[in-house]
Amino acid sequence: MDQPAGARIVSEDGRRLAVTLGAVARGDASAMADLYTRTSAKLFGICLHILGSEAEAEETLQETYVLVWRKAAAFDAGKASAIAWLAVLARNKSIDRLRRRGPAAADLDAADRIPDGRPSALDLIEQEQEGRRLAACLEGLEERAGRSIRSAFLEGAAYPELAEREGVPLGTMKSWIRRGLLRLRECLER
Amino acid sequence: MSDDLDILAGEYALGLLEGEARDAAERRLAADPDFADRVARWSGRFSPMLEAIEPAPPPPALWPRIEAAIAESSQASASFETSAGGNVHQLRRRIAMWRGYSVAATALAASLALFLAIRPDTAPAPVSPPAAAPLVAMMSAEGSAARLVATFDPDRRSLVIIPASGLDHVPGRGHQLWLIPADGKPRSMGMVEPGAPRRMAVPPAMLDEMEAEVTLALSVEPAGGSPTGLPTGPVVATGKLHRT
């Protein structure tokens, strides 16, 4: 069965999580505990992956759930999946903290965490359906644009660092990314 | 042009904007719902990249810290909303509900998080439709250091035991778990190892007994269990199963 462009498939698990998040928005403490039980491993994995430090990942996870408690009312089940919303919150908090550490530290950690020979993130995300679509669309971009978009999202690399990695001027990297974003959007909305 | 706006939203969602550009985007995010929508759509488009990351259970000690931080956050927002003329009664009730729940929530979250991670040894396949809610017992005893959390998982018809602390390993001795229903006759659930969470299948005949207010007890017995089929040694922890 073809899904209309832009439609999301919501699993039963996803639906139940959205309901739980709705209860958290109404100040339901037991829903908050339930949410933590069901999502903390995924979110902690994200914090740990980005920060590489248990101690920092723990603090960041704490900040993330406090934010969830305060901002749960902003979650719109019609616009996003609950787990994606939560995962992005954890990612944003982690990237913020990574940047507060300082640029040199971020570079070293990034290099350590992505050794050669391991499957790339692109290989792994193909396992999930939405991941497969994103992977396919990223593949369709100019290679350096796709790679840079992925690095920006997963490692928090900003324009100057991306330009340096690829050995191009800042202006060139900016046009690659901007063109890449438009093509990505067009591909995903097909 | 909406393309330019969409690009800006995408750059913001990726974290590529810095300094003044970033500050301006943040102000826009707060003031312009259309821009906020665009940023949210981009986050949704990128989020599958996070699917690939390996999950990692956080340390159990983290949850109580998060609860405390949240309770503090509720209090802080309560005083703010009170002074702004908010509904004081509702907010106070909310904080009280949080505090009242936190002990049970700690045990429940810790035990559930662990049982989700434990590989079942002999648990039968779930029967559909799933039956009642899980039951939890916090087990301890006066004068004993033993602390356990037992969770009855009705879907998988098993009892998950988390020995949180205080079970010494004594050569030649073991800890045996008993279920004591309304008729007062202890039924053996098996042996519990110090330090190792276990999932124990509940025999079909005992499933009917697994209900709220039933007592679980842990006694010290010879290594292979009581030879008599009833507890012979000291009871080091007990607790009643409660609905969650």
Descriptive notes:
The complex is a heterodimer of chains A (190) and B (244). Chain A has helices at residues 12-25, 29-51, 54-71, 82-101, 103-113, 121-125, 129-139, 143-155, 159-166, 170-188. Chain A has 190 residues and is mostly helical. The longest helix of chain A is centred in the first third of the chain and has 23 residues, at 29-51. Mean pLDDT of chain A is 84; it is low at 1-6 and 104-127. In chain B, the strands form 2 sheets. Chain B has a 5-stranded antiparallel β-sheet, covered by helices on one side. The N and C termini of chain B lie far apart (54 Å). The interface between A and B is large, with 56 and 52 residues.
Write the layout of secondary structure elements.
The complex is a heterodimer of chains A (190) and B (244).
Chain A: H1 12-25, H2 29-51, H3 54-71, H4 82-101, H5 103-113, H6 121-125, H7 129-139, H8 143-155, H9 159-166, H10 170-188
Helix pairs in contact in A: 1-2, 2-3, 2-4, 3-4, 4-5, 7-10, 8-10, 9-10
Chain B: H1 2-14, H2 19-31, H3 33-46, H4 62-83, H5 88-117, E1 135-139, E2 147-153, E3 158-165, E4 173-180, E5 187-192, E6 198-201, H6 204-207, E7 215-222, E8 235-240, E9 242-243
Helix pairs in contact in B: 1-3, 2-3, 4-5
Overall mean confidence score, pLDDT of chain A: 84
Number of strands of chain B: 9
Helix content of chain A: over 70%
Question: Would you tell me the structural class of the helices and strands of chain B?
Answer: alpha+beta
Which two chains share the most extensive interface?
A: A-B, 56 and 52 residues
Order of helices and strands of chain B: HHHHHEEEEEEHEEE
- Percent helix of chain B, as a range, is 25-40%
Assembly level: heterodimer
Cα distance spanning the termini of chain B:
54 Å
Label the overall shape of chain A: globular
Number of helices of chain A: 10
Radius of gyration of chain B: 25 Å
Strand percentage of chain B lies at 15-25%
First CA to last CA of chain A: what distance? 16 Å
**Rg of chain A from C-alpha positions?**
18 Å
